[in-house]
Specification:
single chain, four-stranded mixed β-sheet, five-stranded mixed β-sheet, alpha/beta
């Protein structure tokens, strides 16, 4: 029996099927533009059928990572700024009816954190905070494998950070995403005429250096705020921004500890890189399906 994890990104929707051991069986993808321009249920159903067509006789379940807010039962999408066609959609129930397979929804950052906590860089810890800097900024906190709080829990990208009046992708003013997201880094790179992938390797422009220093500082402030509120044992840092060439990960870690209470230091918590990559969502999906069966 296979489990399918579907990642809803801003550019692509990617589905990965894995067997009981976690080994990848097959994968498929569609343009995310199809979700914006066509019937989302049909788009997801086609993706699932593409997976089924690749020698998978039986699916134990499908888990979709949503970059947005879900209802309390995690059956419907409340809001996802990048794919507004999903807003208000009872996605899990309608896909189950269409595909005759169990369907579960999870916040994308939570799905990745589940995987890292199960067999990635946070394995063996009970209190796990995951923070992911990509196009937006996502986070999740697991307390002995459980999510705690309401539907807006750990929406760290919407937490207020500074007071310059910037507006984030979700519409909040002066939130973390307006200062520490991949979109901000892209704007900074464009302003200095460099590609976003080369931004951390370019050292010829003092104003770019200052901008990057502030960018990483704001990321550190974001993590330090979450650590102070949640008191994790381990913090897993991931997302596309932190995997770019030249990204100063050790500087980020230092920025976090510089802004924490002296009582909270390396002796109290660990800060580590996510190490499963795209497989984190697969392992996270497995944990959800297995706990439901």
């Amino acid at each position: 029996m296979a489990v399918v994890a579907i990642d809803v990104g801003g550019t692509f929707i990617r589905a990965t099927a894995a067997d009981a051991s976690g080994a990848v069986i097959t994968s498929a993808s569609q343009s995310a533009e199809r979700l914006r321009n066509e019937n989302p249920i049909s788009v997801f159903a086609t993706l699932i059928e593409d997976i089924r067509a690749n020698s998978i006789e039986r699916l134990a379940g499908v888990v979709i990572g949503i970059p947005g807010i879900l209802d309390r039962q995690r059956r419907s999408v409340v809001n996802t700024p990048n794919v507004k066609a999903l807003n208000g959609l009872a996605l899990a129930d309608r896909l189950e009816d269409a595909c005759r397979v169990p369907v579960y929804l999870d916040h994308d950052a939570t799905l990745q954190t589940r995987g890292e906590a199960l067999c990635g860089s946070a394995a063996g810890f009970d209190l796990v905070l995951g923070v992911y800097f990509g196009t937006g900024v996502g986070a999740a906190f697991l307390d002995h494998g459980r999510l705690v709080g309401g539907i807006y829990r750990t929406q760290i990208g919407h937490v207020p950070l500074r007071g310059e009046g910037r507006v984030g992708t979700g519409g909040a003013v002066d939130c973390v995403e307006a200062y520490a997201s991949g979109l901000v880094l892209e704007a900074l790179a464009n302003e200095h005429g460099v590609g976003i992938q080369e931004a951390f390797e370019t050292r010829s422009e003092p104003s770019l250096e200052r901008g990057l220093e502030m960018f990483v500082r704001d990321q550190g402030l974001t993590i330090a705020t979450a650590v102070t509120l949640l008191d994790p044992e381990v913090v897993v840092i991931g997302g596309g921004v932190t995997t770019m060439r030249g990204y100063p990960f050790e500087r980020l870690v230092q920025a976090v500890f510089d802004r924490l209470s002296p009582e909270i230091g390396p002796q109290r918590i660990k800060i580590v890189r996510a190490n499963l990559g795209s497989l984190a969502a697969v392992w996270g999906a497995k944990s959800i399906v297995e706990s439901a069966t």
